[in-house]
Amino acid sequence: MNSEALIRHSATDGGRSESRHAEPEFVPSASDRGPIADRHPGPGPALVAATHGDAAPAEDVDSRMSTAGGILVDRAGLWDAEALGDVAAATFPLACPPDLAAADIEAFIAEALSGDRFGEYLTDPRRIVLKAADDSGIVGYTMLVTGDPVEPVVAHAVSVRPALELNKMYVLPGHHGGEVGGALMRAAIDTAHETGCAALWLGVNQENLRAQRFYGKHGFRIVGTRAFTVGAVRCRDYVMQRTL
Ligand SMILES: CC(C)(COP(=O)(O)OP(=O)(O)OC[C@H]1O[C@@H](n2cnc3c(N)ncnc32)[C@H](O)[C@@H]1OP(=O)(O)O)[C@@H](O)C(=O)NCCC(=O)NCCS
Q: Where are stretches of biased composition, namely Basic and acidic residues (predicted)?
């Protein structure tokens, strides 16, 4: 498979409304991190082998393109790191419970969603970051993580293997209820198929009803619960799974 292959998808979906809820995020351990300059900063998307069970490597993802609705979903590259950090900082607060302190949200953004951190995600062979863009730039993104669930409670809840984690799913507020979320979700599902996975799983804050509704529309069902820390606060997530 061409290592410069791109994932490109189009959009068609519906929905609306705003609220503040929390979401599961993969916070890499110290061993996950390293200087960006030491990692793949090449001219094309960082398509590198995944390291999960029986699933195919991430570089085997198909190449497709569509621009319906003016939204293009494509694999993000290292050059997108700062823009993804900006979108993440603008959208993560929307996923947080209304009573979560701003300081905790800001701490999480600084720790897990900076441009530097996205640079690490984008050069991590276990991760696939998909961006949705229109003429204005990136308007949403999702991050997929290969490999078996690490947390025992999640490993117990997720019943199908190999499973791909839908680690992040964020759309700028002006595009909620439009085509972007659905296009990203379809790209994530296609990527799961293409990497040989039999299921997608995710964590979502138990108060994030909009996201739960969105995931439910796309075939996810609650299979368990877990704790997820934002700043100094342990939030409660549902674990959801979608078999493919
Ligand atoms: C989650 C997200 C990607 C979904 O994209 P979207 O464009 O809003 O999704 P949709 O509009 O297709 O679906 C949302 C559904 O929730 C419904 N909804 C909106 N607000 C709601 C609320 N407060 N309670 C329950 N349902 C709600 C919508 O009506 C829609 O359902 P419908 O299509 O049956 O009418 C987007 O809302 C987002 O980025 N939110 C902020 C970040 C976030 O929470 N990310 C998920 C973290 S796990």
A: 1-24
**pTM recorded for the entire structure:** 0.81
The Cα 22–Cα 94 span in angstroms is 8
User: What are the distances in angstroms from CA 104 to CA 26, 107, 111, 117?
Assistant: 16, 5, 11, 18
Q: Are strands 127-134 and 221-230 parallel, antiparallel or unpaired?
A: unpaired
Residue of 210, 215, 239 to test ligand 1 pocket, by largest number of atoms within 8 Å of CB: 210
Sign of CA dihedral 240, 22, 123, 189: positive
Q: Evaluate: CB of 210 within 6 angstroms of ligand 1.
A: yes
Contact by Cβ (8 Å): 224, 159: no
E strands within the chain? 72-75, 127-134, 137-145, 163-171, 199-205, 221-230, 233-243
Residues 6+ apart with CB under 8 A from 28: 120, 124
7 pLDDT band, cuts 50/70/90, is low
198, 244 in Cβ contact below 8 A?
A: yes
Tell me if 213 CB under 6 Å of ligand 1: yes
**DSSP state, 57?**
P
